[in-house]
Specification:
The complex is a heterodimer of chains A (251) and B (233).
Chain A (H helix, E strand, L loop, with lengths): L8 H5 L3 H33 L13 H28 L2 H33 L7 H22 L3 H15 L2 H12 L18 H33 L4 H8 L2
Helix pairs in contact in A: 2-8, 3-4, 3-6, 3-8, 4-5, 4-6, 4-8, 5-6, 5-7
Chain B lengths: L2 H6 L2 H18 L1 H21 L4 H24 L1 H8 L2 H7 L4 H15 L1 H14 L7 H26 L5 H28 L5 H31 L1
Helix pairs in contact in B: 2-7, 3-4, 3-8, 4-8, 4-9, 4-10, 7-9, 7-11, 8-9, 9-10, 9-11, 10-11
C-alpha cells in the first residue's frame, strides 16, 4: 500500500461552493477597488505622463493596454488548465466552475490583445496584421479558448462538459510553451518579451513602472470578473441546495 | 469467452487483435476508405483553379497546399474513428475490458493512420508533380508526411474521443483539433521549403519526430480519458 498523504484542510474547503461563495463576497470589494484604482492610475500615468518613445513617439503608449492583455490572456489559460486538472483529479466542483468561467474571459482578453496589437502594428509596421509568430500564437490561443468554450456549450451534462473541457485545455497547454519559444524559433518582426521576471527591464523606470501598475490592475480586474462569473455559476448549479434558496429568498 | 481467457491475452496480442479488427472493418467499407483520398486530390486541384495555374507560383505554394490538403483530409476521416464503435456499443466493451484502454486506443489510431495517413503519404508525390514542386523537395515532402501524419491522427483522436457522444461532433471536432495541428503544419511545410531551397532539413525532422514522440506517449492517455467522459454521458 502506498502511504496515504493528506491534503491540507483549506484545500478541501476551497472545493466547497458555499465556502467559496462566502470568501469571494468578502474579497470581491477589495479586488474591485484595487482594480479601479490601479487601472485609473496606470492608464493616466502611462498615457499622459510617461515619456514618449525615442523611435515610436506617442504610438507606443498602447503598450499599456496591449502587454497586460497579452500577459493576462496567457496566464488565464494556465489557470483554466490547472483548475481543470484539479477538478479532474480531486473532483472539486469549484475548480470545475472556475475553469468554465475562465474560457469566455480569456477569449475576450485575447481578442483585446489582438485588437490592440493590430492598432499598434499599423503605425509601427505599416500593416494591421503580419503573419508573425507571436501574433499567430495569440490567434491560436484565441482558437483554443473558443474550442473549450464551444465544447462546454455543446455538452448538456454539466459534469461531463467540465471534464471534457478540462481534458481539452490540458491538451492545449502544449501551446503555451510554443508561444513562449516562438520568438526564438522564428525570430521575426515582433519585439521580444517586454517583461521577464529574472532580468532587469531594458526600459527606463518611468516607462515600465506604469506598465507594471497596469499589469497588476489587469490581474485584479480579472480576479473580479472571474469571481463574479464563478459566483453566478455556483448559484445556478447549487440552486437546489438550501443555502442558495435561503440566499435568494433574502434571509 | 470466459473472463480468465480474456485477461490471459498479452498486451501485444490485444494490440494486434484490435489493429486487425479495425483494418478488417475498414476494408469492408471500401467507399469510406477512398473518399478522404479523393478529397485530398480535389482540394489540391482547387488551388490552381482558384488562384493561378502558373507553374512558378504553384511550385512555391505546393508544399503548403499538399500539407493543408493532407491535414483537412485526415480531419475529415477523424470523426468516424470511434463513431461506429460508439453506436454499436463495442466502445463500451472496450472500456470494460481488463486491458488498458490507452493500448486499445493506440491500436485504433495505428489502424486509422494505415488507412488514412499512409495512403496520403504514398499519393503525395502525384500531387507534388501536378503542383510543380521542385524535384529536390520531393523526398522531404514524403518524409515529413510520413512523420507528420501519425501525429495528426494522434491529436485528431483526442478531438474524436471528446465529441463521440455528441450528435454534431463533425463540425466541433475541427474547431477543437485544427489549432493543435498548426505546429505540425508549420514544421512540415518549413522542412519542404528548406529542402526546395537546398537547405538541410534535419532540424525540422527532429522537431517533427519530437512532437510525434510526445504525441505517442501522451495522446493515448488523453484519448482514453476523453472516451471515458464521452461514454459516461
Amino acid at each position: 500500500m502506498a502511504k496515504s498523504w493528506k491534503m491540507p484542510k483549506w484545500f478541501y474547503q476551497l472545493g466547497s461552493p458555499r465556502w467559496f461563495y462566502d470568501i469571494s463576497s468578502r474579497l470581491l470589494p477589495w479586488f474591485a477597488v484595487a482594480a479601479v484604482l490601479l487601472l485609473v492610475l496606470g492608464a493616466a500615468w502611462g498615457l499622459a505622463f510617461a515619456p514618449p518613445d525615442y523611435q515610436q513617439g506617442n504610438s507606443f503608449r498602447i503598450i499599456y493596454i496591449h502587454v497586460p492583455a497579452a500577459v493576462l490572456a496567457q496566464s488565464c489559460y494556465m489557470l483554466m488548465a490547472v483548475a481543470g486538472a484539479i477538478s479532474l483529479i480531486w473532483k472539486m466542483k469549484v475548480a470545475d466552475m472556475v475553469a468554465k468561467s475562465c474560457a469566455p474571459i480569456g477569449a475576450t482578453i485575447a481578442i483585446l490583445a489582438l485588437a490592440t496589437g493590430a492598432i499598434w502594428g499599423k503605425p509601427t509596421w505599416g500593416a494591421w496584421w503580419v503573419w508573425d509568430a507571436r501574433l499567430t500564437s495569440m490567434l491560436i490561443l484565441l482558437f483554443l479558448y473558443i474550442g473549450v468554450y464551444t465544447l462546454h456549450s455543446a455538452i448538456d451534462n454539466e459534469v461531463n462538459a467540465g471534464q471534457a473541457g478540462a481534458v481539452l485545455s490540458l491538451v492545449g497547454l502544449v501551446n503555451i510553451p510554443i508561444i513562449k519559444y516562438s520568438v526564438e524559433w522564428w525570430n521575426t518582426l515582433h519585439q521580444p518579451a517586454t517583461f521577464t521576471i529574472t532580468e532587469k527591464p531594458k526600459m527606463v523606470p518611468e516607462m515600465w513602472v506604469p506598465l507594471l501598475v497596469m499589469v497588476i490592475g489587469f490581474y485584479c480586474f480579472f480576479a473580479v470578473a472571474l469571481m463574479l462569473r464563478t459566483r453566478t455559476e455556483i448559484l445556478q448549479r447549487e440552486k437546489r441546495s438550501s443555502w442558495v434558496q435561503q440566499l435568494v429568498e433574502g434571509k | 469467452m470466459t473472463n480468465s481467457t480474456t485477461s490471459d491475452l498479452g498486451l501485444g496480442a490485444v494490440f494486434w487483435i484490435t489493429l486487425k479488427r479495425d483494418l478488417l472493418l475498414a476494408f469492408r467499407r471500401r467507399n469510406d476508405l477512398v473518399s478522404p483520398l479523393v478529397f485530398f486530390l480535389m482540394v489540391a486541384t482547387l488551388f490552381p483553379l482558384g488562384v493561378s495555374p502558373e507553374p512558378k507560383f504553384l511550385s512555391e505554394v505546393a508544399a503548403g497546399v499538399v500539407w493543408v490538403a493532407a491535414l483537412l483530409s485526415t480531419l475529415l476521416s477523424m470523426d468516424g474513428l470511434f463513431r461506429t464503435d460508439f453506436d454499436d456499443g463495442s466502445l463500451e466493451q472496450m472500456l470494460l475490458s481488463p486491458q488498458p484502454l490507452a493500448l486499445l486506443v493506440v491500436a485504433k489510431i495505428c489502424a486509422h493512420w494505415m488507412i488514412s495517413g499512409l495512403p496520403l503519404t504514398i499519393m503525395s508525390p502525384l500531387l507534388a508533380v501536378m503542383l510543380f514542386l521542385p524535384d529536390g523537395a520531393m523526398g522531404a515532402l514524403v518524409v515529413t508526411l510520413l512523420i507528420g501524419t501519425p501525429t495528426l491522427s494522434l491529436i485528431g483522436a483526442i478531438g474524436a474521443g471528446l465529441t463521440v457522444g455528441l450528435r454534431k461532433g463533425g463540425v466541433l471536432i475541427t474547431l477543437l483539433v485544427l489549432p493543435l495541428y498548426i505546429p505540425v503544419l508549420i514544421f512540415g511545410t518549413g522542412a519542404v521549403q528548406a529542402a526546395a531551397s537546398g537547405l538541410p532539413i534535419n532540424g525540422y525532422l527532429a522537431i517533427l519526430g519530437a512532437i510525434l514522440a510526445l504525441g505517442v506517449v501522451l495522446a493515448p492517455i488523453a484519448v482514453a480519458a476523453a472516451l471515458r467522459i464521452s461514454v459516461s454521458n
